[in-house]
Amino acid sequence: MRELKMLLGGIMLASIAGCTGAQMVSSPDSGAAYAPVNEGARLGVIKYLNDGADVVRKMRREDAYKQMHAACKGRYRIEGEGSNPEGGSAFTSGNGTYWAQSNYWYIQFSCI
Q1: What are the tens digits of pLDDT across the range 30-42?
Q2: d(CA 57, CA 30)
Q3: Contact 47, 27 (CB under 8 A)
Q4: Can you tell me whether residue 94 is helix, strand or coil?
Q5: Widest pairwise Cα distance in the chain
Q6: Is 18 in contact with 47 (CB distance < 8 Å)?
Q7: Using an 8 Å Cβ cutoff, are 89 and 102 in contact?
Q8: Read out DSSP for 24-78?
Q9: Domain range for residue 65?
Q10: In a domain, 34, yes or no
């Protein structure tokens, strides 16, 4: 029973640690001095951890919306989205080691 509590505590800690929000993978406009003229036409990509409590996942998605809006300096359109398993955490207990897969949600977007 103690080991189960430790395992659940570790999972909760990992969930809280993942509350940092969304991460821009590729911005549609880098603002680089030597960027190509059509850089603004390419899709941007943002991701966020899609594990944990529903309210936390909603907060991460809202953060993604804010970052996409900022990257586009206003309006944007979601072109596609989906889940991708990526990384995870190992938890050791008296009976062995357990692996908790992390699942990220990716959003492709374009500026309007």
Answers
A1: 778 898 888 877 8
A2: 27
A3: no
A4: coil
A5: 61
A6: no
A7: yes
A8: EEE-S----TT--TTGGGSPEEEEEE--S-HHHHHHHHHHHHHHHHHHTTS-EEE
A9: 2-28+40-111
A10: no
Token output for 8: 């659940």
Number of structural domains found in the chain: 1
Residue 19 DSSP code: G
Distance CA 88, CA 90 (A): 7
87: three-class secondary structure by DSSP: strand
Q: For residue 35, tell me if it sits in a domain.
A: no
Does the reported pTM lie above 0.90? Answer: no
Q: At 75, which amino acid appears?
A: R
39-53 confidence digits (pLDDT tens): 877 899 999 999 989
